[in-house]
């Protein structure tokens, strides 16, 4: 049981770190231009230097929603980690980690909403570039989506023995 709890704890910490990296780094979409590599994140457009991400007025609300949901997912993931540690030492034997699992599933839902909006609105083109493709932050966000779902379900099923 201790090994299972330690494994879940390690995967949860890895998920939090990957969420931080995927939200902060500016490599959600990558493309090539004639003189440099172009990368686009949630915050900046980086060519040789990074500048504010140019967004049309119709896409601005979508980008702000993606930013907000990614930040919320980080917050909920950290809260779930703190709740897990607190419940680990305060729950009686035989009790389940319902609250921790519920918070982690809310984190999962925030990631799902953010990455789905980004996929629908922003992955079709990279401005001034050829051969656009997804960057590692986009892939990390999807990995965090999977991990947070698995961890949330494990917390709901897991019983402190």
UniProtKB/TrEMBL annotation:
Key words, A-Z: Glycoprotein, Membrane, Transmembrane, Transmembrane helix
Localization in the cell: Membrane
Keyword Transmembrane helix among record annotations: yes
Pfam families: PMP22_Claudin
UniProt keyword Membrane, yes or no: yes
Protein family: Belongs to the PMP-22/EMP/MP20 family.
The protein, known as: Epithelial membrane protein 1
Annotated source species: Chloropsis hardwickii
Gene that specifies this protein: Emp1
